[in-house]
Amino acid sequence: MDAELEPVALTPQKQDNAWKHCEIYKYGDRLQMRCLYCRKMFKGGGITRVKEHLAGKKGQGTICDQVPEDVRLFLQQCIDGTVRRQRKRHKSSSEPLSVASLPPIEGDMMVVQPDVNDGFKSPGSSDVVVQNESLLSGRTKQRTYRSKKNAFENGSASNNVDLIGRDMDNLIPVAISSVKNIVHPSFRDRENTIHMAIGRFLFGIGADFDAVNSVNFQPMIDAIASGGFGVSAPTHDDLRGWILKNCVEEMAKEIDECKAMWKRTGCSILVEELNSDKGFKVLNFLVYCPEKVVFLKSVDASEVLSSADKLFELLSELVEEVGSTNVVQVITKCDDYYVDAGKRLMLVYPSLYWVPCAAHCIDQMLEEFGKLGWISETIEQAQAITRFVYNHSGVLNLMWKFTSGNDILLPAFSSSATNFATLGRIAELKTNLQAMVTSAEWNECSYSEEPSGLVMNALTDEAFWKAVALVNHLTSPLLRALRIVCSEKRPAMGYVYAALYRAKDAIKTHLVNREDYIIYWKIIDRWWEQQQHIPLLAAGFFLNPKLFYNTNEEMRSELILSVLDCIERLVPDDKIQDKIIKELTSYKTAGGVFGRNLAIRARDTMLPAEWWSTYGESCLNLSRFAIRILSQTCSSSVSCRRNQIPVEHIYQSKNSIEQKRLSDLVFVQYNMRLRQLGPGSGDDTLDPLSHNRIDVLKEWVSGDQACVEGNGSADWKSLESIHRNQVAPIIDDTEDLGSGFDDIEIFKVEKEVRDEGYYTNTSEKLFT
Fold first, then answer.
1. Phi and psi torsions of 518, nearest 5°
2. Per-residue DSSP letters for 172-204?
3. BED-type domain spans which residues (predicted)?
4. What is the C-alpha to C-alpha distance for residues 697 and 691, in angstroms, rounded to an integer?
C-alpha cells in the first residue's frame, strides 16, 4: 500500500499546529496522516484524531509513546483552549468587543478578506478591517483577537487565541509593520534558528529560493525532525549511490504503472527542444496521459536536428518504446526538420498523427499582434511604467500600499503572452494605480518631479487607458485559448477548436466593422492554418457533448469529415470502424442513454472523456474511440522548471559511466518536477522580480543606467514585507465556450486566407 501513497505538501491553509507533527499522503481521493514519532497511520478522523493521539487524550484511540514531552504539552494546551472556546461560544453575547480588550501590539494592523474570485482586493473594499473601535463596533459578527496581557506574554495555556464569530479564519494579514506573534517565544526562537540554518545551507550551495516551494521540502524537514538529535546526513557517495539508485527505481516503477493507462486512454509523445545560452541543443521526450506526464529521456540534438533521417529514426524508437498502438499523436514544434520527420512517421505508422504544438501557434498569433504599431506603442508605454516602479524600492512600496500587496506584473507562457497578460492586470488595477499617482504620498515623493518619473503621468491619461482596454478586448480571448491549450487541469483536445472560434467571435463582436476585425482574423488564420489540416482538433470538438449539442447542422456536416478521418487512422480494425459509424447515430440524435436528463445535465459538469466513460456503455466502440481522442493534450510545452535541470551536463561529461549516472539523475529530477505540476503546487514563485521570471519579464523590469545610479532607489532591504496570495483564483476557462456556433463567416474567412495564399511552410509541406 505504501507504494500507492503520494506525499502531499503542507499548505498555508492547514493552520492546526498538529499538521507539523505528521506526514500527509494522498491515497486515491482520500488523505491519510502518519505520526512522525511512532509512524502510526491514520486513515480517517482528520487532524483532530492525530492531535489527540499526540496529546495523549485517553479514550480517543491509541496514544503516541514516542512524542517529545514539550510537543505533547503544547498540543494538550491547544486542545484545552479549543474546548474552552467551544464552551464560551454558547455563552457569548452579540455585543461587539472594544479595542481595549485587544492584546497590545506595536504599529498598525490591517487585515483583508481574500477574494477567491479575482485574486486581489482593492484597498477601498468593504472587507478591509482596521484597528479602529468605530469600525469594530459596526461589525458585530466579525471575529477579533482577545487575550489577557500576562497570559499572552508568558506563553501559558491561555496563549490560545479566543475567537468570536464565524469569519475571522478567512482574514489574511496585509502590510503589518510589527505584530507580536501568537506563538510561544521559545518555540519561535527555536524555529528561527532552524530557518537560519536552512538559509545558510541553501545560500552556501547556490540553491534557488524556490527550493523551499518543493513538495518534498517539508517532508524532508519532518523526516529529519523525526530522527531526533544526532541524525547523520547522507554522504556524497550515498547520494551518488544507493539513494539515486532507489529514486531511479521508484520513478521507473511509476512509469511502468502508467503504461496501463496509456493502453486505455491512448497517449501523446511530447518533444521539447531546449537551447542553452552556449548554443547547446537538447531534445526532451515526455509522454502525456490524463493521469500524469512522465519524462522518458533526453538526447543530444546537435546532430539529430541537422538530419531529418536521424530525427525520424529517433521518433520511431520512441514510438516503439511507448507502443505504437498506444500513441495517438506526436507533438513537436513546426520547424522544417520536424515537418519532414512527422510526414515520414505518419507514413510508417498509419495509426497515429504528427501534430504541431498548438501553444506555439497561438503564441505566434500574440507575437504578431504585438508587432502592430499602436499595440506595440501601448506595450512600450506600460513597460516604461513598470520598469520605473520595479526599479525604485520607495515607489514599489507605495504601489503595493495602494494595490493591497498585488503586483502589476503577470508572468505567462511566453514573452508575448506576458505582455498581454500584464496589460490585463494593469487594467484590473486601474483605479488603484490612479489613486496612487494622485495621492499626497506620490506628490511628496522626490521621484514624482524627476524626468524619469514622468512616465507615471500615463496613468492619468485616458487615451492610454482606452488603448489598454482595446488591446485587452482583442487579446484576452487568445490568452484564454492559450491557457486552455496549456492546462494541467484537463486535456485540451475537446476545447481548442471552440476556444479559437470564440476568440474570433469576440474580436468581431467588439470591433463590428469587417474592415476593422478582418486584420486580426487574418493573423489568427495564418497561424492556425497549421492546425486546420489536423482532424484531431475538429474531432475533439465534435465528440465534446458540451459543444456538439450547441452546434447547427451545417457546422456538424463540416466536422464529420474530420471524425471519419480519425476513425480510419486511429482504428485499424474495419469491423470496429463500421460499429463506430453505426453508434454515431445515437450520439448525434441524443438517443438512448445520451438523451436521459442525467446525461444532458452532465454535458456541462463532467469532463468530456468522463462523460463518455459514464454514459457511453451502450455505444462501447464509439465511447472507447472518443475517450482516446478527448484524453489528449495539444501542447508539447510542460510547465516545469526546465531551466533549473542541467540536462546539458549529461553530454558535457566525457566518461560513459558518469554520463549514464547524470542521465539517471536528470530522469529523477525531471519526473519529480512533473509531480509538482498543477495549481497550488508551489512549483512557481509569485515574486515577479525573481530571476527565474526574467526570461518573460525582462522588458518589464530591466532598469536603465539612471535606475542603477539612483541614490538608494534600489535598496531591496527597504522593501515592505507583503503577503502574496498563495492560492491562484480558480477560473474555468471552458465554462462559456458552448453557447452556440452559428457564425458561418468565421469559416469563410479561413477559406479566403487559403485562397489568398497565406500558407505557412508547415502546412504546405506536410499536406500538399
1. -65, -30
2. EEES-S----SS-HHHHHHHHHHHHHHHHHHHH
3. 13-71
4. 9
Report the 3 state secondary structure along 517-563: HHHHHHHHHHHHHHHHCCHHHHHHHHHCHHHHCCECHHHHHHHHHHH
Q: Is the dihedral of CA 466, 471, 474, 478 positive or negative?
A: negative
Phi, psi of 30, rounded to the nearest 5 degrees: -110, 150
pLDDT tens readout for residues 675-707: 876 544 444 556 777 777 778 888 998 876 555
* CA pair distance 318, 311, nearest whole angstrom: 11
Burial class (CB in 10 A: 0-12, 13-18, 19+), 751: exposed
Kindly state the cell numbers that stand for 103.
Answer: 492584546
Task: Give CA angle at 499 (498, 502), nearest 5°.
Answer: 85
Query: Alpha helix locations (H) across 1-139?
Result: 46-55, 69-91, 133-137
Task: Kindly state the helix (H) or strand (E) to which residue 41 belongs, with its residue range.
Answer: strand 41-42
Q: For residue 764, count other CB atoms closer than 10 A to its CB.
A: 12
3-state secondary structure of 479: helix
User: Rounded to whole angstroms, how far apart are CA atoms 554 and 514?
Assistant: 23
Q: How far is CA 643 from the centre of its chain?
A: 17
Could you give the CA distance from residue 88 to residue 102 in angstroms, rounded to a whole number? 17
Query: According to the CATH classification, is domain 266-356+640-675 in 3.30.420.10?
Result: yes
3-state SS of 614-655 is HHCHHHHHHHHHHHHHHCCCCCCCCCCCHHHCCCCHHHHCCC
Q: Which three cell numbers stand for residue 210?
A: 524556490
Inter-axis angle of helices 462-485 and 415-428, to 10 degrees?
130
CA–centroid distance for 682 within its chain: 9
Query: β-pairing, 327-332 with 267-275?
Result: parallel
Distance CA 619, CA 626 (A): 10
pLDDT of residue 62: 81
Angle, alpha carbons 488-493-499 (nearest 5°)? 90
What are the two backbone dihedrals, phi and then psi, of residue 103, each rounded to the nearest 5 degrees? -65, 145
Distance, in Å, from the CA atom of 225 to the CA atom of 273, rounded to the nearest integer, reads 41
pLDDT confidence bin for 158, thresholds 50/70/90:
very low
CA distance 197 to 201: 6
Give the pLDDT band of residue 532 (cuts 50, 70, 90): confident
Measured CA to CA, the distance from residue 213 to residue 203 in angstroms comes to 15
Quote the DSSP letter at residue 141: T
Residue 271 — φ and ψ, nearest 5°?
Answer: -115, 115
Phi, psi of 295 (to 5 degrees): -95, 130
Prediction pTM value: 0.73
- What band does 60 get if pLDDT is binned at 50, 70 and 90? low
The domain spans of the chain are 6-84, 266-356+640-675
Chain centroid, CA 131 distance in Å: 35
Please report which confidence band the pLDDT of residue 437 belongs to, taking 50, 70 and 90 as the band edges: very high
Contact 340, 394 (CB under 8 A): no
Q: In this structure, which amino acid lies at residue 38? A: C
List of E strands, 220-340: 267-275, 281-288, 293-300, 327-332
